[in-house]
Amino acid sequence: MCAWQMWLAFCLRLCRAGFDFLLAEEVVYPILPPLCSARQKAVSTNGERRQERMARVAQVLGLDAVVLIVKDLEAQQRFYHEVLGLDIVGEYGDAVFLACGAQKLVLFARSHHPQGTARLEGAAKGISHLEFGVTAAGEEELRRRLTAAGFHAYGENYCDADGNLFHFNRVAVPEAGQ
User: Fold this and answer.
1) Which of 60, 89, 109, 157 could connect to 94 by a Cys-Cys bridge, CB 3.0–4.6 Å?
2) Do strands 103-109 and 95-100 pair parallel, antiparallel, or not at all (unpaired)?
3) How buried is residue 67: exposed, middle or buried, by Cβ count under 10 Å (0-12/13-18/19+)?
4) CA of 58: how far to CAs of 18, 34, 47, 51, in Å?
């Protein structure tokens, strides 16, 4: 097996593993020697297929969490746990994580998230940020778009047109038929 055949076999294995975006024309075709006239036709449509694939991949799959900055963490924890019956799935000092169906409700004391607290513009309480579930490939594309459009806030956080914070959580997408 020659070098280009080994490279093609490697790329095909990646494709089967879900890394089909690596087979985009700018990655594979410049490396491979001309194989046949069909390659030229594939080059013209592969870029279009890649753009369509990235548009499908770069989608928010759901709301993963709502994070509230609260005035009284203990009172809010009692309310959401004892009154509403949400299960506590994590406690980390000045933050409490509660299961809310497939999503999370997160309670932060003002001290836990200074950047989120600052964005409340003087309010004593409010939504710190939203967390959206996305695929790994979708996250990369959304990050690129948001940064290019000027909506990067800090670190891995972004803001909407009003300055409300959000970030992404990677979620697994079930295979077809599961």
Assistant:
1) 109
2) antiparallel
3) buried
4) 15, 32, 16, 11
Using alpha carbons, select from 140, 133, 132, 134 the residue that is nearest to residue 22: 140
pLDDT digits (tens, 9 = 90+) for 86-135: 899 999 999 999 998 889 999 999 999 898 888 888 888 899 999 989 89
CA pair distance 23, 26, nearest whole angstrom = 8
Q: Tokens for 116?
A: 């989120």
Q: Work out the end-to-end distance of the chain between its first and last CA atoms, rounded to an integer number of angstroms.
A: 37
Q: Token pair for residue 25?
A: 């024309």
pTM over 0.70: no
Structural domains of the chain in order of their starting residue, each with its CATH number: 3-57 (no CATH), 62-170 (3.10.180.10)
* Residue 54: Cβ-neighbour burial (10 angstroms; 0-12, 13-18, 19+): middle
